[in-house]
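Fig. S4 source data, part A: sequence.
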Amino acid sequence: MRTYLDCYPCFLRQTLVTGRLATADEALLHRIMGKVMATLPDLPLSASPPELAQTVYGIITAETGVEDPYRELKQRANTDALHLLPELERLLAVADDPLDLALRIAAAGNLMDFGVQHDGFTPPERITDRIPETFYRDHRTRFAPRLSHARTLVYVGDNAGEIVADLALIRVLKRLNPALDVTFVVRDGPIINDVTMDDAHQVGMDSAARVLAGGARAPALLPDLMAPAVQQAIANADLVIAKGQGNYESLSQVPWPLYFLLHAKCPIVARHLEVPVGAGIFAYHPGEVDYD
């Protein structure tokens, strides 16, 4: 998905929010905002929003010297979500259809996103209240039979906190298919509240999956910058799940099949998917063509 002019206000809002986490110096923040505003017109609209975000967040880091403004918020989100994990697993243990519920729980976890909705961030303790009853785009009936025969699955992660809901889903996938080998992909370094290797270790994802860094410090997996190990994992995967809006933005035109799992929180993404804002999505992307 390319970048639209409508994305510019979001970049500026994210710059302001992230800048204030990194510094209390209003003069410095003013300079950062000015640099981002001056830079945006020179960035190609043909690139995806996560590609442009590398430049925007690079400016914030260069100006403030703060590598991870969201560090404490991410750690707290992970800790709070881990406290909820026993309740999630109890619900899944008694569910008539644990795959269905685990996918919907993972979708609810996608609401833990400072990048899209800082003021509307859903805290982990409210995730059970936000589990969608169904998906607006729903390809679970396609996924389930393929899961039973799969040997390898790549799961591209999204955010801290949310990763605990992903962990619950991955445990269900492996319970339904004990032979399944799972690779979980994280960001190469901190950007917004996106999941990193540190977050994966904090929540114990490395006990359920092989964890690999995607190849770029960007709020998504970028096809042109994928690490060789991730390229190989995807090439050999029977199933691929890409979690969250950022991964939809960057992967909606890749030439390989995958499943998108997200909430359409942004009007631009919702319009691109042709769904209402707030819709839960579990949808198959066949590859080669833009998502329809």
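Fig. S4 source data, part B ends here. Residues 7-64 form one domain.
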